[in-house]
Amino acid sequence: MRKNLPGIAFFLALLLLAAAPAEARRTKNFRKMPKRPAVVEEPAVSTAPVVPRLMGGRWKPEVRAAIDKFLAERWKGAPGYDLAKPPVAVLPWSDALVVGDPAELVFLHLATSVDFRFDDPWWEIMPVGYGRQPARAAYNHFISLSSSVWPSQPDYHVYRKAVLGSYIGLCREVGRRECRQYLMRVWAGWREDEAVDYSRQVLAEEKSRPGGIELVHSEPADQEPLRLRRGLRLIPEMRDLAVKLREAGVDVWVVDDLPQPVLAASAADYGIDPSRVAGVRAAPDGNRLSASVLKPVPTRSGKAEIVKASVGRPPDLALGRDAADLDLMSYGDGVRVILSGDKDLEAKAKEKGWLIQPSLAR
C-alpha cells in the first residue's frame, strides 16, 4: 500500500492541474499586451456670449461701424444693461426694410378678388368723389356671376380700376395720411386674425413674384391705365439688422403707416413680435374691425406720439425713410440713420449730423 502512495499523489496532482483555469496557467507576456489609447484633450469651447455684429453687405462703412458700436456698448452683456429697461430701436417698413409696399399689395388683392366685406356701410367708406357710384354700379352687374367669368366681364374691370383708383386719388389729392387710413378702413367687417392670415397668404405670393408694374385698364381702349407695383422682396442686410438687434437684447419696434394686420403679417418675416408692431389701427366693432381709425396715425408726428405712449422714452436707435419720419428722428439724441431718397430728410440729416445710408430698397 505504501508503495502505491507516490503514484496516487502524482495522479491527484494531475487532476488538480487539469481543473485549474487556463488563464491561471498561462504566463502573461506584458510586451504583447495592447496599449491603452492615449487620452486626447478636446479643445475648450468658450460659452461666453459674443457681441452681435452686422453682416457686411451694402452698408456704408461708417453706418455699419456706428451700429456695431451701438451693439457693443448697449447689448445685453454690456455693463449697465437693464433687462427691465433695454435699449429701444424703431424701424420703418415699406420701401425701407423691404422692397415694395405690403399695404398696397394686399389692397390690390382684396380689390382684384372682390374680397371686401361689401354691404351698404362698406360702400360709405369709399368717397363719392373718388369713384364710389361707378364702382358700385359695375359691382352689382357682375357679382351674381361665377367668379371664373369675371375677367371676361367689362363691368368687373370698371369696378377694379375705380376701387384701386380711389386710393391713388386720395393719396395724390388729399394726402398720404388720409389715403393710408383708407387702406385700414376697407378692412371693415373682418376679424383681425382673419385679416392677418389673409395678408400673410397674399404676401407669400408676392414674395415669389418678380417685381414689376401691372397696368390696370377699365377697358381695352383705356389710354390712362393705373400703374401698380407688384412683388415684395426682403432685404438681407435689413433682416440681419433686425435679427442682430434682437439677439443683442434690444427692444425692436416697427412703426409705419400700414394697416395693423398687414404690418403684423409682413414684420413676422424678420421675427418682430406682433406686440412690437404699430401700424394704422381700426377701432373694434365687437369682434370685428370697424371703419373707424384709432389715433394717433403712425405718420409724421403720430410716429413719435406712438413711441412716447408705447415705450415712454426716445429710441436709442432709429431709422428714417422719408420726411414723414422727421418727428420721430428728432425725438431724442440716439443713433439716427436716414435712408437716402428724400431730399428734405437728407438736408435735415446733414444739419443734425445724422448718418445717411443709401437706401437698400431702391
Could you please describe the fold and organization of this structure?
The chain has 14 helices and 12 strands. The chain is α/β, with parallel strands linked by helices and 362 residues long. It folds into 2 domains: 61-100 and 233-357, Rossmann fold (3-Layer(aba) Sandwich), CATH 3.40.50; 102-230, no CATH class. A 6-stranded parallel β-sheet has the order 7-6-1-10-11-12, sandwiched between helices. β11, α14 (343-352) and β12 (355-357) form a beta-alpha-beta unit. α4 packs across α9 (192-207), α7 crosses α8 (176-185) and α9 crosses α11. The longest helix has 20 residues, at 154-173. The chain is elongated, with a radius of gyration of 35 Å. It starts with a helix and ends in a 5-residue tail after the last strand.
